[in-house]
Amino acid sequence: MNKSELRKFYLSKRNEFSLEEIEQMSHSILENLKKMPIWDNQNFHIFKSILNKNEVQTSEILDYLFEENKTILVPKVMENQLISCQLNECTEWTKGKFNVPEPLHCHEFPDNKIDVVFVPMLICDKQGNRIGYGGGFYDRFLANCSASTLKIGLNFFSPISETIDKESFDIPLDYCVTPTEIVSFSSTS
């Protein structure tokens, strides 16, 4: 299947899940994240879930980041770019481009200072090549991050064996975390 077919297929599969299944799987993803050696880092970028797209729910992860006193950053679309906005417990939210929840006001944080990025996705292959919604927002954003920034895809589905066609601007993941596994794409991890 090509990227468009894979995108359509996994959107459809994700839409089959009930809210209860999504909540349970999202909780399991958080439990797997807690097992990872990432918690000495300080600056975490995480997306706020789009509920009507049956995405991994990130509210528990956000709560955990607050409990751990991490610097929490969320994306905001400005023209064709994602910028990182520092979050606090009083942040007011609005619907941004594509109905994505975004902070109403943004205290911008430098991309090259981010330690960990939790990346939304539909599916990835066993080399860490991911398929998102097709806008290229995260690939452009990740290109501005430091080479040492960890890129962790959050997904309900395990990586597929089929190799996903990648473009020169595509940025592969370092990990994919699902409800049942933590997959590393690095030969050193």
TrEMBL record:
The keyword ATP-binding applies. The keyword Metal-binding applies. Its EC number is 6.3.3.2. It catalyses: (6S)-5-formyl-5,6,7,8-tetrahydrofolate + ATP = (6R)-5,10-methenyltetrahydrofolate + ADP + phosphate. InterPro entries: FTHF_cligase, FTHF_cligase-like_sf, NagB/RpiA_transferase-like. SUPFAM superfamilies: NagB/RpiA/CoA transferase-like. It comes from the Bacteria. Keywords: ATP-binding, Ligase, Magnesium, Metal-binding, Nucleotide-binding. GO terms for molecular function: 5-formyltetrahydrofolate cyclo-ligase activity. Gene3D superfamilies: NagB/RpiA/CoA transferase-like. Its cofactor is Mg(2+). Belongs to the 5-formyltetrahydrofolate cyclo-ligase family. This is 5-formyltetrahydrofolate cyclo-ligase. It comes from Moheibacter stercoris.
